[in-house]
Design goal:
The protein is α+β, with helices and mostly antiparallel strands and 368 residues long. The chain has 9 helices and 20 strands. Helix 1 (11-19) runs parallel beside helix 8. The protein starts with a strand and ends in a 6-residue tail after the last helix. The structure holds flavin-adenine dinucleotide. Residues 7-13, 30-33, 37-40, 42-46, 48, 167-168, 196-200, 204, 219, 221, 254, 304, 306, 328, 330, 332-336 line the site of flavin-adenine dinucleotide.
């Protein structure tokens, strides 16, 4: 029996391998490098219930994902630090948006409230520099490396072939259907191929002749440390700068990066370093609004690459090539939604019923 081939061993590919592990059809996962070495390894890994512009299908995916994560958090398999998200408003107009988003999220059953500036001082912010914030206290950070290793290990124990250090070099298509992939080891026939290649997804789509409008943006992260212990939530500002507490004495300062319209297609393998201007921006923001981080020193930094879609929603499902599926364009949310994406796609591949609203939301064909 020809297997289902998964291209990519990030959090999405391994979650899918794990979800498919008990099916009768064999599964092969190819990872060009090491498991979790792509965007997943560069993530700041917040599980976010917070949404700036709440929409119901995204909420449904997050709920489904938490159903998968929660038991493993509770039994100690996955670590989870519940630090909460503060979506900070610095103007009255931004505050009106946060108020609207708080009402919409609360309507979905998410614990969310609007905090006054005085309450933000407890979270390390300067109350004179902010107009208020939307607070979702149940958000927190996961450890994506731990999740990837767990999913891959359990998948392998159930018979999934996890081939690391093996790049898929071509996708074979005959008469409009996918029939296999090529690797350095030769041809692997396939009943279905799933492109879960993260920022390399456009390259794998090119191999199959599937045009999808993915672009990339850069996610610089600066690690800040202090000698004394401190706590800090996940704080995001309207201009895309964010800071999240890490452990007992560090914080990650990052940027949500360019919008789709400003973004381009990049080579994810290029090496990159944090722009000097970003250091200045972080320093200015601390001085202006974050007294708790005053005196913090730079410990290290890195730059990750996100994969964007025009509408900010992942592309997940079958493509114009029969049995060639895509699960990519996760933007800044792949760690949050990976198990839900895996569950959705496993059902799709098996021809099982899925929520039609979520199917339309994720459908790659919306870009046709
Ligand atoms: C700085 C930063 C912060 C982030 N913060 C958050 C956050 O707080 N919360 C959140 O939910 N998300 C966050 N994200 C987004 C999240 O990290 C990604 O959406 C997620 O990791 C994408 O996972 P993936 O499996 O799709 O891709 P990847 O992790 O990139 O995995 C794809 C894999 O495919 C492999 N591959 C590529 N081509 C081939 C080939 N031809 N053959 C075989 N293998 C191949 C690659 O080596 C790679 O390992 C962040 C991203 C960045 C950059």
């Amino acid at each position: 029996m020809d297997p289902i081939v998964i291209v990519g061993g990030g959090i999405v590919g391994t979650a899918l391998a794990h979800r498919l592990r008990d099916r009768s059809r064999p599964v092969v996962l190819y990872e060009r490098d090491a498991l979790g070495s792509g965007t997943t390894g560069d993530s700041v890994a917040i599980f976010v219930r917070h949404q700036s512009s709440p929409d119901r299908p995204s909420q449904a995916l997050r709920e489904r994902a938490w159903e998968a994560y929660e038991p493993l958090v509770e039994d100690g398999t996955f670590s989870f630090e519940r630090i909460g998200t503060l979506d900070v408003a610095r103007t009255d107009a931004e505050l009106a948006d946060r108020r609207e988003a708080t009402a919409a999220l609360s309507g979905f059953g998410v614990e969310a409230s609007l905090l006054e500036p005085a309450a933000l001082a407890d979270h390390g912010l300067d109350p004179d520099a902010v107009a208020g914030a939307m607070w979702t206290p149940n958000d927190g950070y996961l450890d994506p490396a731990e999740i990837v290793q767990h999913y891959a290990r359990e998948a392998a124990e159930s018979g999934v072939a996890v081939e690391t250090g093996t790049a898929v070099t071509d996708v074979r298509v005959e008469d409009g259907s996918v029939v296999g992939v090529e690797t350095a080891d030769g041809t692997q026939p396939a009943a279905a191929v799933v492109n879960a290649a993260g920022p390399w997804a456009p390259t794998v789509n090119d191999m199959a002749g599937v045009p999808l409008p993915f672009r990339h943006n850069l996610g610089p992260v600066v690690v800040l440390g202090k000698d004394e212990p401190f706590s800090f939530p996940f704080v995001q500002f309207g201009d895309g700068l964010y800071v999240r507490g890490e452990g007992r004495s560090q914080a990650f300062a990052g940027s949500f990066g360019a919008s789709y319209d400003e973004a381009d297609r990049l080579d994810p393998t290029d090496s990159r370093s944090v722009d000097h201007d970003f250091y200045l921006e972080v320093g200015d923001r601390i001085e202006e609004a974050i007294p708790r981080l005053e005196g913090a020193e730079v410990v290290s930094d890195w730059v990750g690459v996100r994969t964007l879609t025009p509408d900010g929603v992942p592309a997940v499902g079958e493509t114009a090539v029969d049995d060639f599926y895509v699960a990519a364009g996760m933007n800044g949310l792949g760690v949050t939604v990976a198990p839900a994406i895996a569950d959705f796609l496993a059902k799709r591949i098996a021809g099982e019923a899925v929520d039609p609203e979520v199917a339309a939301y994720l459908a790659p064909s919306r870009f046709a």
